[in-house]
């Protein structure tokens, strides 16, 4: 197992900062997923950890040892690439054992380690085959076996499932999660697929434009997004985001805008404050005693056991997700409600999450803290 620490990691290509002052502490045995859209810097950051893309500035340490300027072969790390990078003319056994032969291990040592790894990955019956005779999932396991045979301190994986079909990707996700549990090794895994991140990670590091937006468990980043970007990236459909104003009415606070009046279960006397109101589609209910939002249904999507209604609320698009059938029709006007516990507030200018600091006296505007 290995602990990987990044301090102000920066990688520039000319004037472009692909990775911009990222500081991150990856614990021993952790399954950390680097998540974000294409071009956000996640693969560049992984390659920097591996030593394939030397940092422009900052520091990388492995178990307290500075490896910032060490070549890749001297780092106790194993890389698994998206393209598998298998040798087509070698058998599965020889592909897996290649790193050991390159280090001068004896035939008996190589054979013993290959058999051990093949047993762990379910490849024992495939050792004599060539890569062209394998399925995509089997090739991925061979690539993983070639990394595993070295007994590295940590595994670095760059979108290893992106070439698999949906059914095989689901199965291989489970295999990787189980393998991580058995090995107890440190996994650093790059993906743009939020389902992979949410189902596999012990923690998620979400990147945007080279910067670290938020680090936390899957539940934390989903339930308490640190910014509008995080809120809009996670979720299918993503969080509904509406411009609103915080107003005080009789000592109680509400988020209001056109066709919106959402109680916040907060008290205080504050001047009107411009915010962005966030509510996830699954946290909107149809009807009820209150009418927090007035919506017009524009489109209905059948997802099998669930249904998504795409609506407009005062000109803004809002999605409602619930068990099928929702009982709605296109063009219908419906009232929606939510609970204050499911309301998120973001600073209109910076996009960062707002926290309400309660006081015994009427709370001034400065009690909204980013």
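Q: What amino acid sequence fits the structure above?
A:
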């Amino acid at each position: 197992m290995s602990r990987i620490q990044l301090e102000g990691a920066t990688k520039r290509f000319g004037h472009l900062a692909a990775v911009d002052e990222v500081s991150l502490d990856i614990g021993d045995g952790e399954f950390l997923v680097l998540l974000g859209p294409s071009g956000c810097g996640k693969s560049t950051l992984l390659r920097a950890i591996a030593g394939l893309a030397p940092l422009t500035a900052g520091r990388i340490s492995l178990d307290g040892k500075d490896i910032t300027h060490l070549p890749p072969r001297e780092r106790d790390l194993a890389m698994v690439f998206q393209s598998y990078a298998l040798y087509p003319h070698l058998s599965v056994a020889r592909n897996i054992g290649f790193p050991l032969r390159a280090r001068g291990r004896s035939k008996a040592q190589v054979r013993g380690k290959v058999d051990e790894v093949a047993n762990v990955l379910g490849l024992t019956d495939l050792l004599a085959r060539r890569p062209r005779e394998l399925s995509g999932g089997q090739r991925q396991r061979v690539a993983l076996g070639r990394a595993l045979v070295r007994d590295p301190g940590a595994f670095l994986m760059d979108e290893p499932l992106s070439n698999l079909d949906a059914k095989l990707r689901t199965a291989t996700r489970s295999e990787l999660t189980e393998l991580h549990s058995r090995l107890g090794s440190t996994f650093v895994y790059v993906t743009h697929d939020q389902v992979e991140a949410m189902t596999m990670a012990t923690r998620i590091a979400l990147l945007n434009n080279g910067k670290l937006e938020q680090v936390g468990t899957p539940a934390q980043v989903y339930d308490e997004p640190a910014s509008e970007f995080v809120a809009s990236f996670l979720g299918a459909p993503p969080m509904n985001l509406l411009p609103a104003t915080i107003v005080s009415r009789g000592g109680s606070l509400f988020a209001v805008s056109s066709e919106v009046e959402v109680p916040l279960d907060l008290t205080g006397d504050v001047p009107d404050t411009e915010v962005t109101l966030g509510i996830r589609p699954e946290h909107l209910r149809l009807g009820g005693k209150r009418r927090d939002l007035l919506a017009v249904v524009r489109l209905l999507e059948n997802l099998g056991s669930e249904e998504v209604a795409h609506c407009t609320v005062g000109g803004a698009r809002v999605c409602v997700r619930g068990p099928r059938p929702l009982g709605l029709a296109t063009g219908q006007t419906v009232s929606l409600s939510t609970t204050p516990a499911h309301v998120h507030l973001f600073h209109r200018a910076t996009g960062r999450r707002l926290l309400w600091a309660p006081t015994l006296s009427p709370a001034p505007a400065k009690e909204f803290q980013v």
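Q: And what stands out in the fold?
A: The helical segments are 42-50, 92-102, 107-121, 136-148, 166-183, 194-200, 218-223, 228-233.
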